[in-house]
Amino acid sequence: MRETELEHLEKRIRERFVKAFATYHLLEDDDHVLVGLSGGKDSLCLLEMLAKRARIDHPRFRVEALHVRMENIDYKTSTEYLEQFCNDLNVRLHIRTTSFENNAEKKQKPACFLCSWNRRKMMFNLAQELGCNKIALGHHQDDLLSTTLMNLFYQGRFDTMPALLKMRKMPIAIIRPLCMVEEADIKRYAELRGYEKQEKHCPYEHDTHRATMEHLFKEIEQISPDARHSMWNALAREGKMTE
Question: Rounded to an integer, what distance in angstroms lies between the CA atom of residue 89 and that of residue 87?
Fold first, then answer.
């Protein structure tokens, strides 16, 4: 019974994964993709789906992964586990370390922004070093919808993280192949596949607008089960999924 559920779930995730890159043209022949591998369930699922898809003849693309360690954040995963995970998928893993300064007295950006910015900077630098033309991030549908709420409440605009974002200053595009996959499916899949959880959680993970919006989105779904599809269709109609 457990195996049957896993196979069914993997099929559903894979179908939505394939639909996303077909709908938004996320992958093409000769792409060289760098995956941001945090070690969480989303990035592990993303890497697994991409690595398995890369074994198929069309489209032909290569996959590598990057795990960035932040020196001053007590948030880490087992290097040995990530290395074994990548080896099993025949994916080359790069591990880099960086840090950031967060002086509250100087009223700098929030810690989450600084951490994310430095991780992205590391990713872009390595992507250019390796000659990658795509950076894949593990944001799922719930992430995109929560971002939509954040932008509405805090920025006064209807927008989200696009499935495909072409950078203007460099020949690199950011892709989000899990954009049509629900977080609940990834969470259950990770449990059935036995993904190893991170050792420690980020001390700032609950102290953000995003955490508030994620909670709000769950409440909205309880009130209106169709809210997910309504919001997604609205984003698609307004052309917010590519940029």
Answer: 5
